[in-house]
Amino acid sequence: MSRPGLTFGAVAAHGRGWLPLIGLSALVGSGVTLALPTVLGRAVDSIVSGDGVTTWLVPAAVLIALGITSALVDAFAGTACVAGTTAWLRHRLVGGVLAGGPEGTRRFDAGDLVSRVSGSASDAAQAGIAAVTVAAAALPPLGSLVLLALIDPWLAVAFFGGVVLVVAVLWAFARRTAELSLAYQETQGRIATLLTEALTGIRTIASAGTVEREERRILGPVPDLHRHGRQTWQVLARSGAQAALVGPLVLVAVLAIGGLQVVSGRITPGELFAAAQYAVIGAGLGSLTGLLGEVARARAGIRRGAEILEVEPVGFGSMNLPEGPGRLEYDDVTVRADGVTLLDHVDLSLPGGAAVAVVGPSGAGKSVLAQLAGRLRDPDSGFVRLDGVPLRALNHEALRTAVGCAFERPVLIGRTVNEAISAGRIAPVQTLAAAQATHAHHYATRLPEGYHTPLPEAPMSGGEAQRLGLARAWHATRLLVLDDATSSLDTATEMQINRTLTEDRLRRTRLIVTHRAAMAARADLVVWLDRGRVGGVGTHEQLWQNPSYREIFG
Fold it and tell me: With contact defined as beta carbons under 8 Å apart, do 253 and 156 qualify?
């Protein structure tokens, strides 16, 4: 299942509800800009001749009022357009991050993703209004060229030469700014990544007394950020100075030629006034540097957002699970990552309804085996089946109803403790049953507002967080996948939960990654992994005869 890509045109088109109004407002503003010099020029001629002054001053006042109105409309519509496009972009990017799953987004750091969804999306949302504004801003100089040609062709020639120089400056500016804007945003992403890492390990940093060193590490890319920002402003200043230098030269050339034409009687003083105003408008083409800078930042933001949407979303099938005991099969499964084989041609058939412990030394592939069972990643080759159906073939609802996962370090999501358990999927009575089964009920009822206590206001230890994580997974109807999910519990609570797991009255299949010999001994079956391969399958007592197996538990 592929998603439409993110392009400059697609982002700009999303503002189509507002862009016509912005474009119309810009056209009106450009028309006012072009018409006003001619009207004022006629007023000057009327003043010189002393005939019908009000005939041209009234239209001038109307044009000024129209220009102010169009500017106000443009400001309102522009703000609304950018706000709506930003919200749409962030919705798409957040959806892309979540749809990509753990493996799809693994190449992005958390802080960098936050930077892309927040800052880069905001920059990208400027695409439509920036493009329309640039196009509209180019109209007055072009119109000035035409109107100067109507006044006198030689005025247009002098004007055109200066405009060509300004366009050359703008072209060079646009190319250089695009590169610098992307580099600036990427550096911001690196800083956000480092800050996120530090916040995750803030207790370690505090206890190790390395606060100052971490501060230096986080702020390490700031000189690069400063350099990119300085280079951007240097390019802007240089281009602005070049354009500003050309502008007066154009004005002087037009006035010089226009003066000669007035002396020769080819144009009137009012037309000279209008020509001077058009020369000023043309010189204003240099002000496009700021607008082109917005376009460059928008393009950089779109590029960073497009990289997120290039991640293929996790695909689901259309099948439902047939009736069955929860038999879990690994059929010639191989998993690789970064050129390393994590699981190598694993074949397993685990009986339904059994408590299966997965043991092995660090790096043996235990967590990878669990991730495959929960379909948090897919194998590079082979199949994982639940009651005969490949997990890839199951529809999303069937998979997530049948399979529940709990982890060593659960991340609790939701506004309250109740939502952290239910995840919006189960009824209150089921939430209560799950909390009681995993011994989280006693913790929840001791909180100030019970299950309705906001999560940020619910102090909890690592063991209490693990109990809530277990409760969240308890809704599974066919398979529970527990990846070292009881490691932080106190001994008494762990024994109670292990007993609950191994004596599950619902007779679901339980795949339990563990480092504890006691848990392995209580399991119906033990899978022993060693360097990505199956070292043995049997009961704990049977495997205990192997010295290598005993070494796992020290």
Answer: no
Residue 348 β-bridge partners: 330
d(CA 521, CA 158): 93
Q: Please write the tens of the pLDDT for every residue from 332-350.
A: 999 998 889 999 999 999 9
Are residues 368 and 537 in contact, defined by beta-carbon separation less than 8 angstroms? no
Would you call 509 helix, strand, or coil by DSSP? strand
Q: Is the pLDDT assigned to residue 1 strictly greater than 60?
A: no
Positive or negative: CA dihedral 492, 498, 499, 505: positive
- Per-residue buried b or exposed e for 287-307, using 16+ beta carbons within 10 Å of the residue's own CB: ebbebbbbbbbbbbbbbbbbb
2 contacts 312 by C-beta, under 8 angstroms: yes
Q: Is the dihedral of CA 170, 171, 173, 178 positive or negative?
A: positive
pLDDT of 142-162, one tens digit each? 777 788 788 888 888 877 777
Nearest-5° angle of CA 106, CA 110, CA 115? 125
Cβ-proximal residues to 348 (8 Å cutoff; 6+ apart), any chain: 328, 329, 330, 527, 534, 537
Taking the C-alpha atoms of residue 394 and residue 385, their distance in angstroms, rounded to an integer, is 10
Query: Which string of DSSP letters, residue by residue, matches 414-474?
Result: SSBHHHHHHTTTS-HHHHHHHHHHTT-HHHHHTSTTGGGSBGGG----HHHHHHHHHHHHT
List Cβ neighbours of 359 (8 Å cut-off, separation of 6 or more).
366, 513, 514, 515, 520, 526, 527, 528, 529, 552, 553
Please say whether the beta carbons of 22 and 126 come within 8 A: no
Rounded to two decimals, the pTM is 0.72
In whole angstroms, how large is the CA radius of gyration of the chain? 35
Segment 184-240, tens digit of pLDDT: 888 888 888 888 888 877 877 887 778 888 888 888 888 888 888 888 777 767 766
| Strand 389-390 versus strand 381-386 pairing type | antiparallel
CB atoms within 10 A of CB 513: 25
For the beta sheet containing 328-337, the strands, ordered from the edge strand earlier in sequence to the opposite edge, are: 340-350, 328-337, 381-386, 389-390
Cα–Cα distance measured from residue 250 to residue 259, given in angstroms and rounded to the nearest whole number: 14
Amino acid code (one letter) for 281? I
